[in-house]
Structure formats: C-alpha cells, structure tokens
Amino acid sequence: MTYLISQKKYKNKKVFWMTALLFLFGLLGAAFWFVMGNSNGNLNEENKGVLETTTPVKTQSRAKPYLTITPKMVRQGDPALITAEGATTTRDVKSFTFDDRPLFIFLHEGQVSALLGVELRAVPDTYPIILTFNDGRQIKENLVIVERQIVRKPFDIPDKLGGNTNESEKELVSTLALEGKIINALPVVWKKLWTEKFGSPLKGPLVVTDDYGYTRLIGKSTTMPHKGTDLKADMGTPVYAMNRGVVKFASSLRNYGSTVIIDHGAGLQTVYMHLSKINVTLEQKVEKGDIIALSGDSGYTLNPHLHLTVRIWDISIDAMKFLEILGEN
Ligand SMILES: [Zn+2]
User: Fold this and answer.
1) Domain count across the chain
2) Which of 19, 33, 91, 275 is least surrounded, with the fewest CB atoms within 10 Å of its CB?
3) Integer Rg of the chain from CA
C-alpha cells in the first residue's frame, strides 16, 4: 500500500504525527464524499418507479438513462428520433412505447433509439413515451405534437392524365388509392441496414419546389395532401440512394410514375418518384450514393422534378426535417 506511512522515514515524532493527522483528515473527507454520493444513489433507487422530466435540465446534471427527443419541436408530419441516453443495449429493454403503441428499437450511435413518424393528421397534444427495462425501471418523456400550418393550393390534372375533367378527377382518386395500397403492402426489412448518416438524393444544394404537407385542391371536390417533397431536378438528373438498403419497388405506376422504393430497415423507406429511367432491380442491395435512377416527369406531374418521400413504417413524413435529424451535416 502506497498510503502506509513508515515511521522510519521520519527523524522526529512531531513531523510524523502532523503527517498522520493530515492523512486522517484526508480519509474523513473521502468517507464523507462516499456517503453523500451513496445517499443520492439511494434516492434514485427509492424513486425508481417513473423518472419524469418535463423541463429542460442541463445534460451534465441528469442521471442516465434518460430520454431525448429530436427535433425539439415536433410538428404534424415530422419524424422524431427518440434516444435513451445511457442505455447501450436493446437486450435490457422490455418495451418502448409512444402513446401505448410499441416503437421499434435499434442502436443509433451506440444508444437505444426509436424512430417515430408523426402522421400529418395526428391530433396536436401531449403524448407519453415510456421505456421499460427488464428489471422494471422506467424512464419517461412527453412528446408534444404541434400543429403544422397547412397551405391550400389548386393543382391541375395534366392533359396526359385526362386534364381537368370530372372523369379524370374520379380516375385519379381511385388509381391513387390503389397505388397507395401497393406501396403499403410491400414487405419490410426489420433489421436496420444503415450505419452512416443519410445523404442527399441529388448532387448540389436541394431546391424545394413544392413543400411537404400542403393540400392540393384538385378538380371540383378533391383535396389531397402532398406527402412528399418536390425537389428541383431537370429531366435526366442522376438520383442517388440516400443510404444503404434493399430495393423493394422498381416499377411504373400511373400517377407516381416510374418509382423506386428503398427499404433501409427499422421501418425506414425512401421513395423516389416521377423518374425517367430506373437503374436498379427488385431486391437489389444498394449503397449510399449509388445512382439508382434518372429524374423525370412520369406520372402525375406538371413538370420534371424529383418527388422524394421518406416513410417511417406506413407514415410519410417531412423528408427535409428527416434530413435535418438523420442527414449529413
Ligand atoms: Zn410531389
């Protein structure tokens, strides 16, 4: 033991006893610190039912594990990344729920996480998120869904789909419903395939020509939410896979046009529509940055562009907000 003081080292007793006293004070201090630290631990143990935090607390002072939600403000149609800071293995987790509905858990940057897609028509309110560990401990956080401002704009039916007539309006509604069903019925990849952040589907800065979420007024009586983001892309612009995944759809649809859907696992899909050329085949594995297609104006479009949809399970969310939380830089 290096702390043992040998009497032989000290030539006079005075120096020895002073050193011994100092050593004793040091020991007392360490014991006091240890007891206080322990009593804090006991406090957490006693309160181990639900640890709830609704007010922001400095990260350093929070006892792990605790839940964080990104982005800070979650609107209708937004994605939310929920992370259990300090929980590093999914094996310890019994359940992870949003409003009593189970969330799919995975490790993101070494922490137990889940992705939530908030429906565009979700009721703005406060919803509980609860993570229960196998040993019974729970951590809880409230997710507040804020209303998204919805703009309404008229949208024509192009001549190639019959123009603005009652018949083409009816056909549009019925065929779009069918196409939605086809996409919802695609088999899913459960395992999270991506490890890197999500990249851009186009080279250079993205220019949004039509926002996610606004309501298109079509014909006499049809209203249709735009559940994707339209990006400026001239005819024949290369379109890149936003991350590693498997092609689960590579075909042409009446309204969505030539479409590629990549499943990235863990409920995440990226959807590229109105393409002019598809470079991939069904079940093909793709890496981030692979050129999967060329953009175009196939299907229900008024001009060439890339329509990008990001889906979390069956919910189409705001792709630009998604890139803010899981994209590069
Ligand atoms: Zn679009």
Assistant:
1) 3
2) 91
3) 28
Regarding predicted confidence, which is higher, 2 or 101?
Answer: 101
Rounded distance from Cα 218 to ligand 1 centre (Å) = 14
pLDDT in tens, 155-188: 888 889 888 889 989 998 999 999 999 999 999 9
Q: Are residues 110 and 207 in the same domain?
A: no
Centre of ligand 1 from the C-alpha of residue 74, in Å: 22
286: buried, middle or exposed (CB in 10 Å: 19+, 13-18, 0-12)?
buried
Residue 259 contacts residue 291 (beta carbons within 8 Å): no
Ligand 1 centroid, distance to 116 Cα (angstroms): 22
Give residue 297 CA to ligand 1 midpoint distance, Å. Answer: 11
Which pLDDT tens digit goes with each residue over 62-96? 899 999 999 999 999 999 999 999 999 999 999 99
H or E stretch covering 223: strand 222-225
**Domain, as residue range, for 192:** 152-326
**Any idea what the CATH number is for the domain that residue 106 is in?**
2.60.40.1930
Classify residue 299: in a domain, yes or no.
yes
From the centroid of its chain, how far is CA 178? 27
Same domain, 55 and 42: no
Question: Is 4 part of any domain?
Answer: no
- CB-based burial label for 273 (10 Å; 0-12, 13-18, 19+): buried
